[in-house]
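Researcher: Next entry in the queue.
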Amino acid sequence: MIKIVTVCGFGIGTSVILKISTEKALKQMNIEGEVECTDKTSAKSLVADVYLTSKAIAQELISEVNKPVIIIESFLNVDEITTKLQEVL
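Model: Structure for this entry, 89 residues:
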Protein backbone atom coordinates (compact mmCIF):
# COMPACT_ATOMS: atom_id res chain seq x y z
CA MET A 1 0.00 0.00 0.00
CA ILE A 2 1.31 3.42 -0.97
CA LYS A 3 1.21 6.35 1.45
CA ILE A 4 0.72 9.82 0.00
CA VAL A 5 0.71 13.13 1.86
CA THR A 6 -0.98 16.17 0.33
CA VAL A 7 0.43 19.45 1.58
CA CYS A 8 -0.73 23.08 1.69
CA GLY A 9 0.16 26.06 3.84
CA PHE A 10 -2.25 25.36 6.70
CA GLY A 11 -3.41 21.80 6.04
CA ILE A 12 -7.11 22.56 6.05
CA GLY A 13 -7.99 23.94 2.63
CA THR A 14 -6.34 23.05 -0.60
CA SER A 15 -4.63 19.97 0.83
CA VAL A 16 -8.08 18.50 1.53
CA ILE A 17 -9.14 19.18 -2.07
CA LEU A 18 -5.91 17.60 -3.30
CA LYS A 19 -6.48 14.60 -1.00
CA ILE A 20 -9.90 13.94 -2.51
CA SER A 21 -8.57 14.24 -6.06
CA THR A 22 -5.62 11.98 -5.23
CA GLU A 23 -7.95 9.32 -3.83
CA LYS A 24 -9.91 9.44 -7.10
CA ALA A 25 -6.66 9.10 -9.08
CA LEU A 26 -5.59 6.07 -7.05
CA LYS A 27 -8.98 4.48 -7.59
CA GLN A 28 -8.70 5.01 -11.36
CA MET A 29 -5.26 3.37 -11.31
CA ASN A 30 -6.50 0.48 -9.13
CA ILE A 31 -3.84 1.24 -6.53
CA GLU A 32 -4.53 0.76 -2.85
CA GLY A 33 -3.25 3.70 -0.89
CA GLU A 34 -3.62 5.93 2.11
CA VAL A 35 -3.81 9.68 1.55
CA GLU A 36 -3.30 12.13 4.38
CA CYS A 37 -3.50 15.92 4.20
CA THR A 38 -1.42 18.24 6.32
CA ASP A 39 0.32 21.60 6.54
CA LYS A 40 3.85 22.22 5.27
CA THR A 41 5.46 22.21 8.73
CA SER A 42 3.89 18.91 9.82
CA ALA A 43 4.58 17.26 6.45
CA LYS A 44 8.31 17.26 7.18
CA SER A 45 7.83 14.85 10.08
CA LEU A 46 5.41 12.49 8.33
CA VAL A 47 6.66 9.37 6.61
CA ALA A 48 5.23 8.91 3.12
CA ASP A 49 6.13 7.39 -0.23
CA VAL A 50 5.15 10.52 -2.16
CA TYR A 51 4.26 14.12 -1.32
CA LEU A 52 1.90 16.19 -3.48
CA THR A 53 1.84 19.96 -3.22
CA SER A 54 1.94 23.30 -5.02
CA LYS A 55 4.99 24.83 -6.67
CA ALA A 56 5.22 27.41 -3.86
CA ILE A 57 5.67 24.74 -1.17
CA ALA A 58 7.58 22.10 -3.15
CA GLN A 59 11.09 23.59 -2.80
CA GLU A 60 10.82 23.70 0.97
CA LEU A 61 9.66 20.08 1.10
CA ILE A 62 12.26 18.81 -1.35
CA SER A 63 15.02 19.98 0.96
CA GLU A 64 13.42 18.28 3.98
CA VAL A 65 12.17 14.87 2.78
CA ASN A 66 13.93 12.05 0.99
CA LYS A 67 10.97 10.99 -1.13
CA PRO A 68 9.46 12.31 -4.37
CA VAL A 69 7.70 15.67 -4.14
CA ILE A 70 5.27 16.15 -7.00
CA ILE A 71 4.12 19.62 -8.00
CA ILE A 72 0.44 19.73 -8.90
CA GLU A 73 -0.78 22.70 -10.92
CA SER A 74 -4.54 22.06 -10.59
CA PHE A 75 -5.64 20.33 -7.40
CA LEU A 76 -8.98 19.43 -9.01
CA ASN A 77 -7.43 17.82 -12.11
CA VAL A 78 -7.54 14.07 -11.45
CA ASP A 79 -5.93 13.35 -14.84
CA GLU A 80 -2.91 15.52 -14.02
CA ILE A 81 -2.51 13.81 -10.65
CA THR A 82 -2.86 10.36 -12.24
CA THR A 83 -0.24 11.12 -14.89
CA LYS A 84 2.25 12.54 -12.41
CA LEU A 85 1.78 9.68 -9.94
CA GLN A 86 2.30 7.12 -12.69
CA GLU A 87 5.68 8.72 -13.43
CA VAL A 88 6.98 7.97 -9.92
CA LEU A 89 5.17 4.74 -9.03
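Model: The two ends are 11 Å apart (CA to CA).
Researcher: Noted, moving on.
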